[in-house]
Write a structure and sequence with these properties.
4 helices, 60s Ribosomal Protein L30, Chain: A, alpha+beta, single chain, 2 domains, four-stranded mixed beta sheet, elongated
């Protein structure tokens, strides 16, 4: 019988307790979707190892043994060892950013063209939790920007509902000029900050 454990530390790593010629306690560092990795430290009283490369692995048979020298495995081997546990992990959230015209709740043409992809993703995920967060740049009074970002979020939410998305799964909020995507000073026109961020879970 196999017993599974999942570890997350910086980047995703996975651990398994099993036999099959591997150490009883096995840890593998998985890459992110873009190929990047973080660092995972595997330590016990006998010593430690750092995993900082994609598909790098270490392990030990007990707490009386120091973690072994890391080695690189393969995606195929990880699938053999961890396929069952990876199959039941929740999907990572999908993120979309839609941009708006200056001082307006009208989408840019490029962002308008992305709406079908957003709608398709929500349907495909059978999402029960999708956040819609409005933002502005730093031009104008803060109170005005709070209202404008709320209006942007509500317009996107309304379009999603009109496309058949259940309104009860949508969480709508506005950040105004807080949480800038591109850091700027006050009263700075920045198209990339005039946005709605959608997270599909």
């Amino acid at each position: 019988m196999k017993f599974w454990r999942l570890y997350v530390a910086g980047a995703l790593s996975i651990g398994i307790l099993s036999g099959c010629g591997q150490p009883k306690h096995l840890f593998v560092l998985l890459p992110e979707e873009d190929g990047s990795v973080g660092r995972v430290s595997v330590t016990n009283p006998q010593g430690g190892q750092v995993l900082d490369q994609a598909w790098q692995m270490t392990g030990m048979d007990s707490a009386e043994e120091a973690p072994r020298t890391p080695r690189i495995t393969s995606a195929e081997q990880v699938e053999i060892l961890f396929g069952d546990v990876l199959a039941v992990q929740p999907q990572r959230p999908l993120h979309f950013i839609l941009y708006f015209k200056e001082d307006s709740s009208d989408l840019t043409e490029a962002s308008r063209a992305r709406m079908p992809a957003v709608i398709e993703a929500i349907h495909a995920r059978q999402s029960v939790d999708t956040s819609v967060v409005g933002h502005t740049d730093t031009v104008g009074p803060n109170d005005y920007n709070i209202r404008l970002s709320q209006e942007r979020a509500e317009i996107i939410a309304r379009q999603l509902v009109e496309a058949g998305i259940d309104a009860t799964i949508l969480e709508i909020s506005s950040h105004g000029e807080r949480n800038l995507l591109i850091a700027t000073g006050d009263e700075v026109f920045e198209p990339r900050n005039r946005r709605v961020e959608i997270t599909v879970r």
